[in-house]
Design brief:
alpha+beta, twelve-stranded antiparallel beta barrel, Lnb_N, single chain, seven-stranded antiparallel beta sheet, 23 strands, about 30% helix
Length: about 650
């Protein structure tokens, strides 16, 4: 018999002492075993993820916004917020970030400005890993996210649409247009899109900072870019009512799983900063990155390394079979009012203007004398005109503030007393929607005749649209040329020289009439010759920098506009004595659209130098463009230029191709 058996038989081990020993030992052993379980489980998950190459999948790269490096192998994330990455080198190492995210699921540690654990903060990442690795979330330390559940319940996503407010030349950040996403609720009924939510990406610039400093910082990455979620009606009010921009929307054919992944990623993007660039890493580019999360195999952002123009990104989506539905058009208040006023007689327009300005009561005898249908039309236009004035930032209302809103309601009440349906139908949808307009990249090959000499001209323009381009799908009277480079080749000796460069040229022609009094403007900067005939000569006034522009007025309609500008100019040119000049003057022109696809433009101008060099610069030009086949057109220009020391006649004629 052993000593222990003897002790037990003879009561040497007391039950209380034995229980005490067991009480101390069992938790210690059990605790050691349980503590090792998460670590070993995490290691097994990491090994499975590595074997499945999850860190190399398109979906993981889309969720972390990885893009290939230009000069060497590997990737980097476009996200600038360091807290977005759980691994120290997560910005450049997808595998390390995946392992760190797995580890984060086993932690309650709060992350980022919202102070949420990884399980609740990176929902789309978590769902990806749970789906691919079959993780039992009930065993994780955090497995419920009340804030996220409430947020999803409020949005109740059911469908998504791409929204395109057209170009707004008065705003540097929206001169090419803008894109955003609309998330429609499952509680939505037909015609209630205004109750949906908008996903927007924009530069986080100080309020009211919209001058040259804003442009410079936007071009050089001086602002952070952030995603935002807003009630959709606020965006419609901003674009269609305040800025008077027509709005196009395109339903996106996404499965519920794809839509859910996109919305989850929007949740992840709250408070995340990117570096914002006007030309490429802008609203359109980043919204493509959201669609890459929904459908990772599309690789939409890889098409736009140098610049991303909203209309081009819409065309990219239109090129994906079955992704976008038919375009839907929402006219701005200005477009609607212009269309309505054209249906009134001059006398009726006068009555409507007087009512809108509170110069005539809505139930005055002059209106009551009209037939009921025409009286209804006059009152509707008067109401819309006053509402337009109250909503617009650029127009001062005749009856401002609350008094104006009360008076508008009074007009509406009088109109409601007339038992007639509205005489106005829906504003006609333009024949060409933005995705069907010409491509923004343009290449031109032409013959150039100057002073009895013939040469070949070559031009390339990355973006975007000038007044002789086909206006279908674009804003009529608005032009923006960016980095338009012209070269000339002398066929006699093979010399190739720079003709001119339009670094940035903007023109906005806004026709005026009795209802609208907008101010047009033009601005142009780049490198040019004085006159442009001096390409293959040794004339001293050869190539120099210029900046010119100014306000103006325009009149007319959709097919014919007449305009005039007051201009100021600055030239820095070695041919000037001294090598610079400040000038002032003006220009006037006519822009015509005689038949669809044909554009004509005639312009003449004069600048008198007022400081620096003595002299002047005058010009007269005529241009025409005629369509040939899809994406090709014939263009010809004839121009005469005059300076104090020289003049020249130039004729260009050639073929343009759009890509």
């Amino acid at each position: 018999m052993s000593k222990s058996e003897y002790a037990i038989r003879h009561g040497r081990y007391r039950p209380k002492r034995l229980a005490m020993i067991l009480t101390l030992l069992i938790p210690l052993v059990a605790g050691t075993a349980f503590a090792s379980t998460p670590s070993s489980r995490l290691q097994r998950l990491e090994a499975r993820a590595a074997r499945a190459h999850l860190a190399a999948t398109d979906e993981w790269h889309a969720l972390l916004h990885y893009e290939p490096n230009w000069m060497h192998g590997g990737v980097h994330s476009e996200v600038a917020s360091l807290w977005f990455f759980l691994a120290k080198d997560g910005q450049t190492d997808p595998a390390a970030e995946l392992d760190a995210t797995l580890a984060g699921l086993f932690s309650k540690q709060p992350i980022g400005p919202r102070k949420l654990p990884a399980y609740c903060l990176f929902v789309a990442r978590r769902k990806f890993l749970v789906r691919k690795l079959d993780i039992d979330t009930s065993t994780l330390p955090v497995h419920d996210c009340p804030g996220y559940r409430h947020w999803r319940a409020v949005i109740a996503p059911d469908a998504a649409s791409l929204v395109f407010p057209t170009a707004f030349p008065n705003s540097p950040s929206s001169m090419f247009g803008h894109t955003l996403l609309r998330i429609d609720s499952a509680r939505r009924r037909h015609g209630t899109e205004l109750l949906s939510y908008a996903v927007n990406f924009a530069a986080a610039a100080p309020q009211g900072n919209r001058g040259l400093g804003f442009v410079w910082k936007g071009l050089t990455g001086g602002y952070p870019g952030v995603f935002g979620l807003f009630p959709y009606y606020k965006k419609v009010k901003q674009y269609a009512w305040i800025e008077n921009r027509d709005v196009w929307s395109y339903p996106l054919n996404l499965t519920q799983a794809q839509l859910s992944r996109l919305v989850d990623h929007v949740w992840e993007m709250d408070s995340v900063h990117f570096v914002y660039y006007f030309l490429n890493k802008n609203c359109s580019y980043q919204l493509l990155s959201l669609l890459d999360v929904a459908r990772p195999h599309l690789h939409l952002t890889r098409q736009y390394n140098w610049y991303a123009i909203p209309s081009d990104t819409i065309r990219s989506l239109a090129d994906v079979p079955g992704l976008m539905g038919p375009a839907e058009y929402r006219p701005s208040m200005e477009t609607t009012l212009r269309w309505e006023t054209r249906q009134l007689s001059p006398a009726e327009q006068t009555l409507a203007r007087k009512v809108s300005r509170h110069e005539l009561a809505p139930d005055a005898p002059a209106l009551n004398a009209l037939p009921a249908k025409r009286r209804a039309a006059v009152l509707e236009v008067a109401y819309d005109a006053l509402n337009y004035q109250l909503s617009s930032k650029e127009v001062k209302a005749a009856v401002p503030g609350q008094a104006g809103r009360d008076y508008a309601n009074h007009i509406l009440a009088v109109r409601a007393s007339i038992p007639r349906r509205s005489p106005f139908g829906r504003v006609p949808t333009p024949k060409t929607s933005p995705e069907d307009g010409h491509r923004s990249l343009r290449v031109n090959v032409s013959g150039v005749y100057v002073d009895d000499n013939f040469s070949l001209g070559f031009r390339i323009r990355p973006a975007y649209h000038d007044l002789l381009d086909n206006p279908g799908g674009y804003t009529r009277g608005a032009a923006i040329d960016f980095a338009d480079i012209g070269l000339r080749l002398d066929p006699s000796d093979g010399r190739l020289r720079l003709d001119n460069v339009h670094l940035l040229s903007i023109t906005s022609l806004s026709p005026r009439n009795a209802w609208f009094k907008p101010v047009s403007f033009t601005a142009d900067t780049g490198i040019r010759r004085r006159p442009s005939a001096h390409v293959f000569t040794n004339a001293p006034n050869d190539l120099g920098y210029y900046l010119q522009g100014g306000p103006g007025l325009a009149w007319g309609g959709r097919d014919l506009m007449v305009y005039t500008f007051g201009l100021g100019s600055f030239d820095a040119n070695p041919g000037l004595q001294p090598a610079w000049a400040l000038g002032a003057g003006g220009s006037a022109g006519v822009l015509a659209y005689p038949v669809p696809g044909v554009q004509l433009k005639a312009e003449a101008g004069w600048l008198q130098y007022a400081a620096g060099a003595d002299g002047h610069y005058g010009w007269a030009k005529f241009g025409a463009q005629v369509p040939l086949v899809d994406n090709f057109a014939f263009r010809s220009t004839v121009g005469y230029e005059n300076t104090r020391v020289d003049d020249g006649l130039r004729v260009d004629f050639g073929i343009q191709a759009y890509f």
